[in-house]
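>> received
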Amino acid sequence: MNSTSSSHTDCINIHPALWRASQLAQGRQHVVPTGYAVLNRELPSGGWPNSTFIEILPAEIGTGEISLLMPALKQAVHNNQRRIIFLNCPLVPNALCWLNWQLNPNNLVWVHPKQSNQVLWATEQILRHDAGAALLVWLPLNMPLAAMRKLHLAAQRSTSLFFGIAETAHQHRSSPAPLRLGLKGAPGGIHINIIKRQGPTHAGPLFIPLAFKEKSHFAFERKAPQPHQASNHVLLDQPLYTT
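>> returned
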């Protein structure tokens, strides 16, 4: 084999942790398909990666983030029979909606810390113990970059799907998350802006049709949790039961 062919072969057989700037990365970690073919094609390895910090940045909370993630959450629960954990969610999950999505509300654990500084600690503990099939964390305002790095490292030690949710105003801050998506409401669905991914910059927004959207209050109840409503706060090892 001549030197030109050898050089060409070496260029092709690059380490799996590396990728060309013109191509999407193809990692070794397991991925869960998003449920939307148009989105799968634009994500490294073709889906939501496990063991990875994924930032979801809706224009405002309730733009459609839960509806977007629901196909993957259903797969994650079905695949490993573990629960979905909502941490620091600002709204009360609607059990009837979960039943309509053919998900048992007993598979949902809602953890609502009393103080925002407890969110980082709780997130690290959940990921360290691999306590759920998926963990969704509503990130506190102005979370320090050092804390974000801790979340990134903790995610790598877990097998869970891990989503950090914050409003799109945070998209201009530095973040260690390898995958960041901005969401904006649209008639019949949402527009997704891929802010950051392991691969080339994405040119324009993707339209994803959604059957249900949180602005219709399907996924959440109308009232946010109040400190005196003890029944709205569940322990880490307790599911959200219907009443």
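>> The chain has a mean pLDDT of 79.
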